[in-house]
Each structure stands twice: as structure tokens, then as C-alpha cells.
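Fold it.
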Amino acid sequence: MQLQPAKKAIRVVRRIFQIFFLGGAFFLAAKLLLGVPTRTVEYYCPMGGIVSFYGLFKKQQFICALGEMNLSLALALLATVLITKRSFCSWVCPLGTIFEGLSALRRRIIPESHLRLSNRTDAVLCNLKYIVLAAILILTYRAGELVFRGYDPFYVLFTGGKGHDLIPIVSLAVLGAILVASFLFEFAWCRYLCPLAAVMNPLSRLGLLKVRRDRTGCDACGACDTVCPQRIRVSEAHKITSVDCTNCFECLTHCPRPRVLEVSV
């Protein structure tokens, strides 16, 4: 489908953002693997700021390698969610960009119907990320150590398994399993296991910037539903309030009718 110029511009801008942050993450990983003194991606991880809340409140100190940057990024992220929903996931997160690429590759190779989970199964699995978040917080607070670090796909991938005290074989095996699962089942990590998504979800519903649908101009062709990576039924909503919406705007760019889907506060 030939995209309209304005819609094409939205996609191009998002791709620029994705490439910039993905490139930055790989740049840090390359410096680390080459032995160049550098900060790891952990320094720029907002999840670290979330994990540090309890330590700061209880002991007035950061856990392990966490610091002010992690806390600042976490607070900035939460503020951003209140404005743009979970746009971090589809515009900034390097892992999200990789999983989006895997999803695009899968769609070219394997018919969607062959691997798509049922809506009920999908809904049940979506709750796992809250369990993962709770486990990470509880274990981290009790141990006073970043126990999840060695199994965090973001950390393992962008340090090449060369970060702090990792178990390379186990860590890389976990990373491989997550990549395979995210190839077979669209955005499996993001939808079912990502603890940062679990943190953002309660605030995401309040996000001001939303996709809205003009019911009078919509012919219910379903193009928006087909391309939505979060399985949201865009064609049935007046405005997208789902906590899973990442404002990737794929629904908007693929809508064949002008001004049926628009973004507004």
C-alpha cells in the first residue's frame, strides 16, 4: 500500500528514533567488548531507577551500580507515559526495535494464523509480567543486589554477556529463548514478561496522547487491527485507551482513508 506523505513522515521519524537509540546501545556494547572504558547500558536503564526506589526510601542509598541517572530516567519515563502512553516501547527501547524487526521477518516467512495465540491465552499470559515485576522487586530488596541483571535480555544483549558477574551460558541461553519466542509469537517479551511494561501500564491508560477514530468515515476494513502489534481492536474503538498501546501509529499509517485515524489529546 502506498502511504500518504504525512503518514510516511510519521513512520520515517519513528524509524530515525529507533535507529538512533538502537545504534547507541550497540555502540556502548562494542566499546565494552573492545575493552574501551565506558559505561554499560545499565547506566541508562530506567528500570534500574524503579528498582532503586525502595533502597533510597529505606536506606537512603542506591543498590549496587545504580545511581542518579537511573532514577532521573525512571522519573522522566513515568512522566512521559502520562503524556504519550507507552511510546517509549515503540520509539526508544532498543529491545522493542529488535522485536519489531523479528516480528516483521516472521510475518514474511510464517503465515500469521499458524502461530497466533488465542485471545484468552494471550490475556492470561499478559499477566505474567506483573509476577515478573513483583519477583524482581522482592528478590532485589531482600538481596540488596541486582539479581535479575544476569537474565535481563536488555543487559545481556547490549553487554555481550560481559557485564558484572554474569553466568554467560545461562544468560545467553535465556536471551536466545526470548529472541526465539519473540520471533514465533509477536512481541512475546514485551507483552508477557517485560517488567518495565508492567510499571508503565497503570499510568498508560491516563496518557494524554491517543489515537482516535472517526466512526463516520471508517468503513471497518480492519487494516488497523491487522497491523497493530499489540492486538488492539482499533476498528471497534472511538479512542485507544488500552494500556498496551505504544503509540507506534502503525494503525494510522496503514489506514486507507484520510483523517479517519488521528492523534490528539
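Residues 5-33 form the longest helix (29 residues).
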